[in-house]
Amino acid sequence: MSSVPARSSTAFEARSLYRSLLRQSRQFAAYNFREYARRRTRDAFQEHKDEGDERKAQELIQRGLKELQILRRQTVISQFFQLDKLVVEGGKTGKQTGDAGGIVRQKDTG
Predict the structure, then answer these.
(1) Residue spans of the chain under pLDDT 70
(2) Nearest to residue 94, comparing CAs of 33, 28, 86, 27?
(3) How far apart are CA 33 and CA 51, in angstroms?
(4) Burial class for 28, CB neighbours closer than 10 Å (0-12, 13-18, 19+)
(5) What pLDDT sits at residue 1?
(6) CA-to-CA distance for 33 and 27, rounded, in angstroms?
């Protein structure tokens, strides 16, 4: 039995898992969580990109699938707690708009 088809199958699974993790990380409502998930995914795959052992690669894929399930649960939970966008995310946010369409912040009179 040749290991070439098994390697290509594993490579396909790894690429598919990588895309799924990145796609799911975009679903986070909070910028910091979104960026952390992307960075962690990229770093983990970069660290193990030269893995030659088939058994170890399958273990890593299984661990990645568990991480994907956790990520899916967490993104659903994060949708319940949406906040205003941060400045680094782009777009205008604020409580009211002024005459020229700019943002006018309300002062807290607490």
Answers:
(1) 1-7, 91-110
(2) 86
(3) 28
(4) buried
(5) 39
(6) 10
